[in-house]
Design a protein that fits this description.
311 residues; two-stranded antiparallel ribbon; binds Phenylacetyl coenzyme A; EC 1.14.13.149; 2 strands; PaaA_PaaC; 1,2-phenylacetyl-CoA epoxidase subunit A; mainly alpha
Amino acid sequence: EDEEFLAAFQARIDAELKIEPNDPMPAGYRKTLVRQIAQHAHSEIVGMLPEGNWITRAPTLRRKAALLAKVQDEGGHGLYLYSAAETLGVSREELVGQLLSGKAKYSSIFNYPAITWADIGTIGWLVDGAAIMNQIPLCRCSFGPYARAMIRVCKEESFHQRQGYEIMLTLCKGSDEQKAMAQDALDRWWWPSLMMFGPHDADSTHSDQSMAWKIKRFTNDELRQKFIDATVPQAEFLGLTMPDPDLKWNEEKGGYDHGEIDWDEFWRVVKGDGICNRDRMKARRKAHDDNTWVREAALAYAEKTAARETA
Ligand code: FAQ
């Protein structure tokens, strides 16, 4: 790739022009997008597991219908994102293969267990809340198919977040046991939710280049800060306490200061050693194996249809 090509590409990015699948693009741009979009798709698919676990145990029919819809949406987001990645010249088989072999990452957050019903509320409130904070700027990502996919995804995430917060509101207005259950879930999910935004900017390998290419519009720490500032008042409204004694409003910066994130825990989970990593991968591999016949049947049908059409 010569200097002239790279400069012309950067000029298109700087002019806020969208890059489309058939446009020339630097190999690194393509690679970064495939990596990020695929990791995002895998996260949606693996992210179905902690909540899927609660569909049969939702406390009411209405809660069950909403949870079922949410988990289905996540499956849809995953498929949508795999399609966006495929426009860059990789196949879904290859991407799924990378997930199942452990080569590709998915969000650390989905390696934590959903133990009580309050976890379902907290996942919607915090995990979807963090996802929205991260994904709204991705609607302006320089790569067209990813940016456009994010618009619909964000609308659905917004329903997911409200669904979760409303569960928390109900629990917090309920019995002492229900409120304690809500507090316990917040205690367990708060720090892992902050880790969703990725390492500190100083330790983020891809941020600088991804910002220059306008794939990312904000750094990991900037988005984490926005999320904290938006979420603390929501916890106050619920009457819950954030599990961070160092959390304090900083008038000067107009945001909250917070305690140190346990980065050892983060990297341990990213590298496969969280509470549920093995279970999650086992569940995905089993689903893939159990559904081989569906893929084979679809392929055979497509071949027959194509043969009929050319006959
Ligand atoms: N977990 O250089 P950076 C959802 C990796 S929301 C695991 O800063 P980057 C919705 C990173 O890949 C969750 N790995 O990387 C839902 C890189 O490793 P690599 C998914 C992480 O890409 C809600 C290394 O660390 N959302 O699913 C994590 O510039 C509820 C260095 O990091 C997205 O994927 C992590 N938390 O920034 C579903 C959004 N953080 O690849 C169900 C799109 C970092 O070199 C229920 N992705 N790493 O081997 C992004 O915005 C970015 O990729 C970041 C990371 C911000 C996640």
